[in-house]
Write a structure and sequence with these properties.
Layout (H helix, E strand, L loop, with lengths): L39 E7 L2 E8 L9 E7 L9 E6 L5 E4 L2 E9 L8 E6 L32 E4 L2 H5 L2 E4 L10 E3 L5 E4 L5 E7 L24 E8 L9 E7 L6 E6 L9 H5 L8 H9 L3 H12 L4 H22 L9 H9 L4 E5 L2 E6 L7 E7 L9 E3 L5 H13 L2 H4 L3
């Protein structure tokens, strides 16, 4: 890796007092689901260290700025188990228009299985962030008093996969990819720690199965349970790799665990073809309406007319509906893509129809999404972790019959064009 990702191991300072830390009543993680606000991360095992690669949105970091690394027993813990500052210096991070890239090495003794790590940039000017010493251990090491440890911060659960993986995926420039999806033919590489490894791949067919509505009983709907292997291949980790579309299992080295990689066509996560524009309408249209759009002589024009009709002929409103709806599709793809495109997942379903959650509360193995500003759709939706080899961060919605009225009310607002009229 380049010098920008050089080791940032810093001596751990013991805290003699944590009295300066404000205990938030309940941490809200909704910031991670706001467009353009997600902190991206990947990890690699390096002997007795775990290296964490991050990309923060924005490029307003400055040399000398402090980042606070902390470990927590749970997402609701009031105080960290330990905490220490990392001072960013020239050469230790890279700033680009798309964001700020950072990497930090953590001793494995400090990050046991199941622990939760947070990494948060300081909110104070670099000149005001003084490096602590053993004689000055307390408030100088703590985040600003008004920080709730969520906005602009990374929270990462230490899983077996993170502790055991000795490689990361990189983009065509050799920078950490920090995502588990690619476009067909997009070049990527593998950066292994230690000896060069062989990259093994297994390809399966892509899924186009959308999530079920929130009131549907999954047991009443037949779901495919097996995947058929299409082909397999091997590559040197030192070469640029390009893959055809499909759902992949990949691993570098025979001792590593398999992990998932989604390879989609065209400009994913963006939408360019008529089929890509029509398919996400499955949540707000009938099958007959979608068939009519697919069969139209010019499907893209048919999609435009569909939205214009919903807007009652108001072109400005139709454009706003299109921007909002397909903007959510693309954002869901960025946020939730794993074993299938993000908009097809349970969280993508709710994100697309209801919008970004107003509040997100986390516990180990669970997320709660809260919508409260619109009385007609106010509700709390619970997602429970259901990890798999393809999708270690996968969550499934706990479906309930009482969601039926709320769901149809939300769909009706799209059908009447009132979603964006009300600024929802």
């Amino acid at each position: 890796m380049r010098a920008v990702f050089s080791c940032l191991l810093v001596t751990l300072f013991s805290l003699s007092s944590l009295s300066g830390l404000r205990a938030a009543p309940r941490r809200d993680f909704a910031e991670q689901y706001r467009p353009g606000r997600q902190v991206l991360a990947d990890t690699r095992r390096e002997d007795d260290s775990l290296r964490v690669y991050l990309r923060f949105p924005g490029n307003n970091f400055r040399p000398g700025q402090v980042m606070y690394v902390a470990a927590w027993a749970s997402y609701t813990a009031k105080q960290p188990k330990w905490q220490y500052p990392v001072r960013m210096r020239s050469g230790h991070f890279r700033q680009e228009p798309s964001g700020t890239w950072v990497d930090i090495a953590l001793p494995l003794s400090r990050v046991p299985l199941g622990q939760i790590i947070s990494v948060q940039p300081s909110l104070v000017p670099a000149s005001a962030a003084t490096a602590p010493s053993k004689a000055q251990p307390s408030n100088a090491q703590l985040p600003p008093p008004n920080s709730d440890y969520t906005d602009g911060a990374l929270w990462l659960t230490i899983t077996p996969a993170r502790l055991n993986s000795s490689y990361i995926l990189t983009d065509s420039l050799g920078l950490p990819l920090l995502r588990r999806y690619l476009r067909t033919g997009e070049s990527f590489g593998v950066s292994s720690y230690g000896a060069e490894q062989i990259l093994q791949t297994r390809r399966y067919a892509l899924s186009s199965q959308p999530a079920l509505p929130p009131m549907t009983n999954p047991a009443a709907v037949a779901q495919p349970r097996t995947l058929s292997l299409a082909d397999s291949a091997s590559f040197s980790t030192g070469q640029a790799v390009r893959l055809s579309s499909g759902l992949y299992l990949i691993r570098a080295g025979s001792n590593s665990a398999w992990s998932g990689l989604l390879v989609e066509e065209n400009s994913f996560p963006e939408l360019t073809s008529a089929d890509e524009l029509i398919a996400p309408l499955t949540f707000s249209t009938t099958s007959a309406e979608r068939k009519k759009l697919f069969d139209a002589p010019d499907p893209k024009k048919a999609v435009d007319k569909f939205w214009l009709d919903l807007a009652g002929g108001n072109q400005a409103l139709a454009k706003q509906l299109i921007r909002t709806y397909y903007g959510r599709v693309m954002e869901a793809n960025r946020l939730f893509s794993a074993h299938k495109a993000g908009w097809l997942t349970d969280r993508g379903l709710m994100y697309l129809v209801l919008g970004p959650p107003e509040s997100v509360y986390r516990e180990v193995g669970q997320e709660q999404w809260v919508y409260r500003s619109d009385p007609e759709r106010a509700a709390t939706y619970t997602f429970r972790a259901k990890p798999s080899t393809f999708a270690p961060e996968h969550y499934e919605l706990v479906r309930r019959p009482e969601y039926e009225r709320l769901w149809y009310a939300a769909v009706e607002q799209w059908r009447k064009g009132t979603t964006v009229r009300a600024g929802r």
